[in-house]
């Protein structure tokens, strides 16, 4: 196993690459073409860890991730919240006045809509932010720009014509760090998050009953999402994050009650809560 490598989806300079370097600067990053490839890199021993985005404060959840996490065979061992600072990048010698187009991932373009409109340039959708930066570097045309990270500017030799062009100042992506084996912190060692999936039985008020134990035992649920299984509208799986450790009484009792009313309860990870969660106004619970 490559003990000093962490895999991510995207090209060098992607925000996932930036997150890897921010959290684990001592590790070598491994670009992967897809999320599945990043999972495979860990399974096959080409990487020890994978950094995977799960949700963004502007765009919402990342498509397909909640299907991959339960089936991917990896364990969540940590989380990271990456502030997304979009940079307007162009070849050397370009000016704002001379720009005609800007390329980036559709979500990045939508997150910079006001800045793009103010510049009066045409937005062109690209598969990803780092790929757009690489393409602009290859073109070398000062009329064309990209929206990507500061790391992409460094890697592809582009100038930052305008910094921090995102419309929302809270633009943040939450990542989870995955490994082949769980790494559960001891109970009582500090704030932890437990992530799990479950299905409810097909009876009235099943979800209400399944979640009742979290309320009666004082367990704060910070995330609950549902998604279809197998393309069937009647087959639904839920993904949840809660504060607490399964070995501590409140969460242990809540999970016992959940197991009584639900099916296929599977814990995806028990890991330290990132300090970002406790910044005022950042994370909300069910209260």
Spell out the blueprint of helices and strands.
Layout: E1 5-9, H1 15-23, E2 28-32, H2 35-43, E3 49-56, E4 60-61, H3 65-71, E5 75-83, E6 87-90, E7 101-105, H4 106-111, H5 113-119, E8 122-126, H6 129-139, E9 144-148, H7 150-156, E10 159-162, E11 172-179, E12 192-200, H8 206-216, E13 221-229, E14 232-243, H9 249-261, E15 262-272
Parallel strand pairs: 1-2, 1-3, 7-8, 7-9
Antiparallel strand pairs: 3-4, 3-11, 5-11, 6-9, 6-10, 12-14, 12-15, 13-14
Helix pairs in contact: 8-9
Pathway: Amino-acid biosynthesis; L-phenylalanine biosynthesis; phenylpyruvate from prephenate: step 1/1
Keywords: Amino-acid biosynthesis, Aromatic amino acid biosynthesis, Lyase, Phenylalanine biosynthesis
EC number: 4.2.1.51
């Amino acid at each position: 196993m490559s003990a000093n490598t962490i895999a991510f989806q995207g090209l060098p300079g992607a925000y996932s690459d930036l997150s890897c370097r921010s959290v684990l600067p001592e590790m070598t990053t491994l670009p992967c073409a897809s999320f599945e490839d990043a999972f495979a890199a860990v399974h096959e021993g080409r990487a020890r860890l994978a950094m995977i985005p799960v949700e963004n404060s502007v765009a919402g959840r990342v498509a397909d991730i909640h299907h991959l996490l339960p089936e991917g065979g990896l364990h969540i061992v940590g989380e990271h919240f990456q502030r997304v600072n979009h940079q307007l990048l162009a070849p050397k010698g370009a000016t704002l006045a001379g720009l005609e187009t800007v390329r980036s991932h559709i979500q990045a373009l939508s997150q910079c809509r006001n800045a793009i409109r103010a510049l009066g340039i045409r937005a062109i959708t690209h598969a990803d932010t780092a790929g757009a930066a690489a393409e602009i570097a290859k073109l070398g045309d000062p009329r064309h720009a990209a929206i990507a990270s500061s790391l992409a500017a460094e890697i592809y030799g582009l100038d930052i014509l305008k910094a921090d062009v995102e419309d929302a100042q809270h633009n943040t992506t939450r990542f989870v760090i995955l490994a082949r084996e769980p790494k559960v912190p001891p109970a009582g060692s500090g704030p932890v998050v437990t992530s799990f999936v479950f299905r409810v039985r097909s009876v009235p008020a099943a979800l209400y009953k399944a979640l009742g134990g979290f309320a009666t035992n004082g367990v704060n649920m910070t995330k609950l999402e549902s998604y279809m299984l197998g393309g069937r509208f009647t087959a639904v799986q839920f993904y949840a994050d809660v504060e607490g450790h399964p070995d501590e009484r409140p969460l242990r009792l809540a999970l016992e009650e959940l197991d009584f009313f639900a099916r296929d309860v599977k814990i995806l990870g028990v890991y330290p809560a990132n300090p970002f969660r406790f910044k005022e106004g950042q994370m909300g619970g069910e209260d």
